[in-house]
Amino acid sequence: MIANVLVGLVALIHLYIVYLEMVLWNTPRGHKAFKLTPEFASASKVLAANQGLYNGFLAAGLIWGLYLGEAGFQIKVFFLLCVAIAGLYGAATVGRKILYIQTVPAAVALTAVWLGAQPRNRTRFLEKLPAWGFRCGTDLAQNQQIMRKIKVRRCNG
After folding, report:
1. Going by C-beta distance under 8 Å and a sequence separation of 6 or more, which residues neighbour residue 102?
2. pLDDT of 157
3. How far is CA 96 from CA 67, 87, 108, in A?
4. What is the pLDDT along the chain (157 residues), one digit of tens a residue?
5. Computed from CA positions of residues 144, 150, 151, 156, in that sequence, does the dihedral angle turn out positive or negative?
6. Which of 11, 86, 122, 146 is the most buried (most CB within 10 A)?
7. Can you tell me whether residue 137 is helix, strand or coil?
8. Dihedral of CA 122/123/124/129: which sign?
C-alpha cells in the first residue's frame, strides 16, 4: 500500500513536470521554476516540450504499473529505475535540485516497492536480468558455459 502511494507520488511529480515543460515553459511561472530568461525560454520551448513528453512516458509507465497491481511489479521497478537514472543525469548536468525532486522520491519508492513485493516477484525479476558474466572477446561456447554456471547458481541459491 505504502509503495503504491509512493509510486503514485512519483507519477504525479512527473505529470506536473510535463505540465511545466509543455504548457508553462514560456510563461513567468515556467521561467521561475527553471530559472529561465524569456528569450531562452522562447528559443528552447520546442526542446522543452519534447523533454516534457519523455517525462509523460515515465509517468504513464508508473501509472501502468499501478494499474496492474501486483502483476505490475517489474513495470514499476523498470520505470522507477528510469526516473532515478534520469534524475542522476539531470543532477550531474543541470543542477543538484533535480536530485531531490526526481531521484530521491524514485529511490524511496523503488525501495518500498522492492521490500513490499512478494518474494516470487523479486526472484522472477532477478532471473530475467541479463547475465553479467559475458566477457568481450570470448567465443560463444565460453559464454554458454558462463550462462550454465549462472543458471545453476540461481537455482541452487
Report:
1. 13, 83, 84, 86, 87, 90, 91
2. 47
3. 32, 9, 17
4. 899 999 999 999 999 999 999 999 999 999 999 889 999 999 999 999 999 999 999 999 999 999 999 889 999 999 999 999 999 999 999 889 999 999 999 999 999 999 987 776 667 666 666 654 444 555 566 656 666 665 555 444 4
5. positive
6. 11
7. coil
8. positive
**Grid coordinates 541479463 are at which residue?**
130
Find all residues with CB under 8 Å of 24, minimum gap 6, and list them: 30, 33
DSSP symbol at 129: S
Grid cell of 126 as nine digits: 532477478
Q: Give pLDDT, residue 53.
A: 96
End-to-end CA distance of the chain: 30
Per-residue model confidence (pLDDT) at position 134 = 47
Closest to 34 (Cα-Cα) out of 15, 53, 21:
21
d(CA 25, CA 53): 13
How long, in residues, is the chain? Answer: 157
